[in-house]
Amino acid sequence: MSDAPKGLVFNIQKFSLHDGPGIRTIVFLKGCPLACMWCSNPEGRSTTPELILSCDRCIGTDECDRCITVCLEGAISKGEDGTVTIDRARCDGCGDCTYVCPSEALETSGDWVEVEEVLRIVEEDDAFYARSGGGLTLSGGEPLAQGSFVRALLGAARNRGIDTAVETSGLCNWKTMKDVAPLTDRMFFDIKCLDPEKHERVTGVSNAKILDNFRKLRAELPEVDVVVRTPVIPGVNDSERDIRAIAEFVTDAGGASSYELLPYHRFGEPKYEKLGKHYRLSHLESPTDARMAELRQVAALA
Amino acid sequence: MLDASESPAVAPISRVRTPHETRIERGEPVGLAAEVGQSKRARIQRMLEGFRDQPIRLNVDRARLLTESMKRTEGQPMVLRWAKALAHILQNLPIHIEDDELLVGSAGPPGRYAVVYCELVGPGRFYTHPHELVPSKPGEPILITEEDVATLKGDILPYWTDNAYHTATMNALPEETRRLMERIFVVTPTASGRSMLAWAHDYGKVLERGIGSIRNEVAERLAALDPFDTAAWVEKRPFLEAVEIVCDAMVAFAHRYAELARSMAGSEPREERRRELLEIAEICERVPEHPARTFHEAVQSQWFVQTVSRLEQAVGGVIGNGRIDQYLYPYYRRDLDEGRITEDEALTLLESIWIGMARSTDLYAKPGMPSLTDGFAHWEATTIGGLAPDGQDASNELSYLILKSKREFPLNYPDLAARIHSRTPNAFLHAVAETIKDGSGFPKLFCDDEIIPLLVAKGGSMEEANDYCVTGCSETKMLNREGIATGCAWINLGAILEMTLRDGRMGCYGNGLVGLSTGDPRTFKTFEELWDAFTRQIENVVQHTFIQQHVSDTLKSRHIASPMFSMLHDLCMESCKDIHSGPIEDALYLGFFDVMGFGTVIDSLAAIRSLVFEEEKLSMDELLEALDADFAGHEAVRQMCLHAPKYGNNDPAVDQIGHDIEACFSGLAHRHTSAFGGELDLRYVSVTSHIPLGAVVGATPDGRKAREPLSESISPSQGRDVKGPTATLMSISSTKCAQYKERAARLLNMKLSPASLAGEEGTRKLMALIRTACDMKMWHIQFNIINRDTLLRAQQDPEKYRNLLVRVAGYSAYFVDLTPALQNEIIRRTEHEF
Fold first, then answer.
1. Whole-number pLDDT of residue B821
2. pLDDT tens, residue by residue, B760-789
3. Considering A57, A102, B245, B817, which has the largest number of Cβ atoms within 10 A of its Cβ?
């Protein structure tokens, strides 16, 4: 066994065009202290590997019952619709079912990987970074929840000339942020809303620590390139008052390279079912382009 | 891991439409949108109105006149016979000038036409059932008159029964080679489908010198022939005489148009049109005989050469426009400087060429042919950009003007190819990227950094290689240096795999041996044994492919000659030899063979290796049983096959199999010398043949069901590359064996969603993607920027989406004209979007 730090990664996505300059590779790290209602990466929340079941891929128990047979815990059984169902309380995460499943209906989300392995995959696209000014973006989950791994990864990336970016919810201990921020070329810092009660209601946690970290980041490490982002969620933070408050807070705290508003989308919804979880916003529509344009004007005013 | 590609295509993404999509959805005519009205290009609009509703008329006259002349010249040298036949055609072919035309000359009747060529395929179904002639686009109206049928049957058929090239080549093949070729779609020879593969002329020579100067040169050389140099007298004199005949005939042909224009002017009531007709008459009296002086003369001279080319012979992919932004540029620049032309007038003339090309359509006389090139636009490849002969960038104002025309002209012509190199100016690349983003699939991109060093390795000089032009779908030509390439054979790699798994047999051909008996795979203990059987099957097929090609090459000059093509080629003129009668001294002969189903077979071998030999999840017997049953009752096996590692995801172990397959073919190509001392190169350009070729192949271990299409060109299997375009490009790059020079095009179709390339930021990213593809030395890459939902809607409402262009292979075609199988195939190609 190697002593090198390992990170829990649940996806490495290439040819990403919207999370930093150029053509990028996003490494998604598993584990997040927030529980945002609109989260589009619910598999990024838990800090352990998870079993995923895609029922649309399952060919049905009439054709195949390999997973039921192989599970020693008896966690998998025939479901009502002809496919299988998981008793997650019984599942011990051994992964045997994912090995025997012929159609990849059962998969494990989350692998423990070393820095070198991540960089090997990231560097497969270095020809594209060279031409586009792209590189590596860390996302999640909350990447800063895996502080020592992220530090090692960003340090190694810098030594190898890879442009990096970190997307953070801002919720981590200050020391981790202080250590990591100078190692990356830019940070995307999420500020969801300024009202502490509302923040707690929709994300499960208070925003105090997040706002505090942001102030410290601007004050103690002003040279770090910080882009502030707000996911605009209809009914939650899509009023001009919400956005103006954030913009004013950012300005007061020392400003940012830019302030970006990202429209809510429902792309994450199908993942909830695969994890055996419930998606609470399934009725919610994305904000219109017109509304986003109005809010962006407010964001630009500050 | 959860996969981003599983996210449903929700509305917000497809909010981003390409201009091409938007115009079609609004029901606007595509192109020419704003400028119709005062613009002179209202003329183009008028010429195009109702264009696609015109039925295709046959030009039977060309075959009739050729046959008439050939009957009279039996026994004479072929080049002389062909010159006389061409002269006879040019003298007697009915000619016309349509209203609004500024550019005159047509190889067929008014409107849309198809030339019937009689000398290649010969009789058989073509002549005995002329009512069954099929247009290249399924369902297009075609007008065959009783008179046409009578002419075909009475005057043409009887003569060619014993004289057609196709019959001769098939009869001359060794027994075992012919047997293999007769198994339809295992190896598909195309040698007799066209007289040669795609070609382009040195138009610049005609514009600068004029045909008259070639005529004078030949006259001088004839006069200088030593009467006692008997060999020259017997061998060279017929060639020189043939050129003389053709030069005179071409000039006379242009003069017929001059005369017609003048007589039409005499009775033309509209003053403006009368003046135009008189100008046409003057131009046709001037060119192609004399050097062109103006842009209009240059374009007319070029067009006469093209028109006569179509009448002389049936070239595969028709005749290319060459480096049009190079040889036309001096005339455009001078006219601009001297105030003789506006940008709009230049565009009108260029678009007149595009209309001229669009008027001609292809016919298929051979059963099965349409499906090989579905929705087939012919490829008058039109090259812009790239390096100049001296290695400097060659792009100029005309390159940009042609891109502008491409964005505005509503038909799928010209087949525009942009050459890209490491120092292509950003501005040019930007214009190219914006044109691609319009969504009609143009231009296709050729990478100088890959092609030029290869051409040098093959024997071209730096100057020749730098000056290559694109021809056909994805070929290149060094004009004045390369000899002709005979139609290439298409090798069905899927069939080779099936023969490997069935001990030399194929399900659709019953119990008889098609390939070699290489053993029952159930007895193979290792993947290496299977690989060994597979490569023996490949060697067998390639051996017979080479034999077939050799016979086709050597027999051709007994059946065909092309004095007009020859007189425009420096080396033919030097040696006084017809272009078909190889070997011509100093000429480079660069032919091909195409391998179809590369992705399907890589995936299949990867699945066998991992499922049967590595993970041992399946026995060979279980796998073969499932394949025999086309997976019926074996869904779990099929799922394992579908989820085995796949090519196109930058998986080194899988890509290595592709590399090994390429090494096997390249090694055989490397050892081989073609009939005229050249090479036959490995190429992956399937056009649409992967559909009919797939129809003879049973279920494959990649999870593909029997008779489904094979993978297309160099692309991964449809929808199996799920890690994004960078991984696709990396995989393709990893399978290349660059140590061999016996390589040609590897064509990649990439589908991107408009949303991923929205705005200026998207354009820049597309530019970066193209630059990287060029760094990776991709021979040929082309993009479909289109929303999947647009394609689905077009299937439901074809009338509304009649103008929807999609890139098929080396060309774009109207989506609704494609067969349902190909439509589905295009929809299934992975759309990269994040």
1. 73
2. 988 999 999 999 999 999 999 998 888 878
3. A102
Computed on alpha carbons and rounded to an integer, the radius of gyration of chain B in Å comes to 26
B412 & B549 share domain: no
- Scan for tokens 């970074």, then name that residue: A129
Dihedral through CA B606, CA B607, CA B608, CA B613, nearest 10? 90
pLDDT tens digits, one per residue of B487-546: 889 999 999 999 999 999 999 999 899 999 999 999 999 999 999 999 999 999 999 999
- Cβ-Cβ contacts under 8 Å for B605 (sequence gap 6 or more): B497, B530, B531, B534, B657, B701
Q: How far is CA B429 from CA B76, B436, B443, B642, B748, in A?
A: 53, 10, 11, 38, 19
| B138 vs B24, higher pLDDT | B24
Q: Rounded to an integer, what is the distance from CA B733 to the centroid of its chain?
A: 23
- At position B467, the amino acid (one-letter code) is D
Specify whether B739 is located in the same domain as B769: no
Q: Is B664 a catalytic residue?
A: no
Residue B208 maps to a domain: no
Q: Which domain holds residue A255?
A: 6-47+110-301
A158 and A264 inside one domain: yes
The alpha carbon of residue B166 and the mean position of all alpha carbons in its chain are separated, in whole angstroms, by 21
Residue B422, chain A, CB below 8 Å: the answer is no
| Spatial separation of the C-alpha atoms in residues B43 and B102, rounded to whole Å | 10
Contact between chains at B769 and A43 (C-beta distance less than 8 A): no
Indicate whether B666 and B699 sit together in one domain: yes
CB contact under 8 A, B768 and A66: no
Distance from first CA to last CA of chain A, Å, rounded?
Answer: 52
Token pair in block for residue A130: 């060279």
Which residues form the domain of B475? Answer: 11-40+319-350+381-481+753-834
B333 and B185 in one domain? Answer: no
User: Using N-to-C axis directions, what is the helix angle for B652-671 and B527-556, rounded to 10°?
Assistant: 40
Q: Is B217 a catalytic residue?
A: no
| B795 shares its domain with B779 | yes
Domain assignment of residue A1, yes or no: no
Is A39 part of any domain?
yes
User: With an 8 Å Cβ cutoff, are B772 and A128 in contact?
Assistant: yes
C-alpha pair distances (Å), A53 with each of A92, A95, B45, B504: 15, 12, 57, 42
- Please say whether the beta carbons of B767 and B433 come within 8 A: yes
* CB-based burial, A120-157: b 16+ in 10 Å, e otherwise: ebbebbbbbbbbbbbbbbbbbbbbbbbbebbbbbbeeb
Q: Given an 8 Å threshold on Cβ–Cβ distance, is B6 in contact with A289?
A: no
The answer to whether residues A95 and A104 touch, using CB atoms and an 8 Å cutoff, is no
Please write the tens of the pLDDT for every residue from A103-145: 999 999 999 999 999 999 999 999 999 999 999 999 999 999 9
B762 vs A contacts (CB less than 8 Å):
17
For residue B758, the chain A residue with the least C-alpha distance is: A17
Query: What pLDDT does B141 receive?
Result: 66
- Strand, coil or helix: B49: coil
Return d(Cα B193, Cα B488) in angstroms, integer: 10
A118 in B contact zone (CB under 8 Å)? no
Query: In terms of domains, do B439 and B387 share one?
Result: yes
For residue B52, is it left (φ>0), alpha (ψ between -120 and 50) or beta?
alpha
Q: B662 with B743, same domain?
A: yes
Question: Which of residues 152 through 181 in chain A touch B, CB cutoff 8 A?
Answer: none
Find the helix or strand (DSSP H, E) in which B79 lies: helix B78-92
How far apart CA B452 and CA B774 sit, in angstroms, is 12
Q: State how beta strands B134-135 and B363-364 pair.
A: antiparallel
Whose tokens are 């499960």? That residue is A204
The residue of chain B with its CA nearest to that of A49 is B1
Count CB-CB contacts under 10 A for residue B762: 19
Number of domains in chain A: 2
